[in-house]
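Hi D.,

Good news: the full-assembly prediction came through. Inputs first.
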Amino acid sequence: MLVEKVRGALRLAALNPAACALGLTRGMTLADAQAQTPALRVVVHQPDADAALLRQVLEDFGRFTPMAALDGETGLILDVTGCTHLFGDEAGLVRAVERRAGRIGLAVRTALAGTPQSARALARFGRSGKVYRPGQDRDAVRVLPISALELGEKDQQALTRAGLRTLGDLEDRPTAALAARFGSDLPVRLGRILGRDDVRITPLRPRAPCVVDRILFEPITETTDVEAVIGDLLVEAGVWLEQRSLGGRAFEVAFFRLDGATRRITVRTGRATRDASGVMRLFRERLAALSSPLDPGFGFDQLRLSVPVTQTLMAAQPGFEAPSTASRDLDGLIDRLTARLGPEAVSRFEPVESHLPERAARLVWAGRRESGTPWPARDPESPPLRPFQMFDPPQPIETVSLAPDGPPARFRWRRVTHDVARAEGPERIGGEWWRRPNHRTRDYYRVEDRDGRRFWLFRAGFYGDDPEPRWYIHGLFA
Amino acid sequence: MPSTYQIAQLKTRLASLSRHETGGEPERFLLGIDRVDAYLDPGPCLFCLHDIHARTAADAVAANAFALGMATCATRERPMVWVFQNLAGQEAGGLNGSGLHEWGVSPENVLIVRVRDATAMLAAGEEALKSGAVGSVLMSGWGEAKAMSLTASRRLALAARAGTSTAFVVRAASMSAPSAAETRWSVGSALSTGLEAGVPGRPAFVAALTRSRQGAAPAEWTLEWDRERRAFCEPAPLSGRRLPVPVPGSAAARGLATGLQRTG
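Then the structure:
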């Protein structure tokens, strides 16, 4: 018995069949129920925990079909079009679902029909566990009581008083009259439940173009076995992709554990590929580099490989001369390093149209095609004008200058004093007033100290400003 | 007892089967300065490992730049991978794309891989060397690391040979450790030959060859980097430099290398 607090009184929220047999009903206050049957086992109703459990069951039941969705707060809808071959036939699928739910400890009512709404009505208000052939579900729905429409109290009472008991009675009435009396919502619902309209469900995850499953009769725990199964799935997916001249850009493996936990691992590639061994290497890297390693628990009993992102990939006919595979090898290296270290770690510099030195170049993922923006031209006669390594943010320094507008004669950075031997500047770089209006204009100086080290210093602000100008070091030259 | 003729035949067969193992001279690249190249007879070798140490912690940038210079000489057009330890970026600053461009390298050819520690750096470096897709791999580390052992350096050397890439390991703020590198260098910054009006000149280094497997005795040179030739050169002032130059990115400098220049 689950109790919840409703408007200040503890009322019964849910009952088990034994309690129903004793005559207790939902909504009855706990005091009344306890007066009727003193020996009651009562547990507080926790809707959040229930919702979390339902979501977990939804993820787990993803093993039956990739298209699964929540149905209210107490049910799931699974679109099993094309998935029944994995379990023998439709009856086998229903039995597998019931077995699985029983193993988790849930009591369920199931029904398999042609449309989502008729299946829902048949499961809740009809006999549980039946599989309805394409013509049979309409006949079965017709004998359901009108409470299967789940209308409000008043409409239900009105229909009962009119003498309409079953959905069959409603169907025989002209729809115009029903719509006039009860609103146009009623005929629409009726049509959906009877199977005339087929409204697809919105699954939790969009279905990938290519989905390959492997159900294991004996659950596996060893990494080598897992990798072997993934390899087989990749070969099968490769055949599917090749038949359609497609290549995959992202590959996802879903691991279904015996006890209901699921885990999904994705790898991406820079270039569309069908090569099973190459993608296998990426998966191996990714599995080895996971921050929380794959925990098999008591074992995985189903693995599913899906290819959510595909691109056209025509089969290439290699010529007689050895083809240049250099760019392909580089792309493979980028994919492997990305699988191991993550995409932020593997990058390339790209120029940005900005005169601010900290924005003039940015790191983008190495697999992206080059944008084609050119780097600014270099003067052949001058030494490098931009530092080899740069600090972000610039670090403050203390300086001693000979002239207010000139380069420093001596400066102190990280507690070491440097005597300036040579200097060039100022190079004035203003701020981007449209982005940061308070950015102070900087005068950059390229200085070299007595030991031969070269620094890039700047002064932010002008003398006479309020607040005082500050000196910083922005980078180090080679 | 097989005859001398049969032994000689066997040797030529083995030499033709293996690539670099027995008999053949390892291929080399030139650094660009005659006296250094002649000393190294005739230059550091390709497809092997070179160690570069920064003389002091403050010379880390110089060591990185010297290694990049060597790598540029070793791989003219092929892509490069630079595995950079995050700690090195915090101590001496992160790599700067415009800086690489000003150095003379095309940044599209350089793949930057940022790693957290020395073990990841060695693993990524080995992966890049073995792939055969890149010309050289630089690895920049900071500080002592147990992972940088003799075994690790041998693995890098083997991976370099297998993948026809050259490996350069740059270490800063750490003691020299035994390693299987072909050449070991200790690099520091040097005063550049100034241009007119006391302006700092080209990047200048003091490079000391501390160890060479070919048997060359330790020696020290002062070098400068010439970015137009993309090679090292003798310290000498730039010819025909006029100051100041237009600010890079301004209309005068964009697109035309020979823009208007003012003197004085």
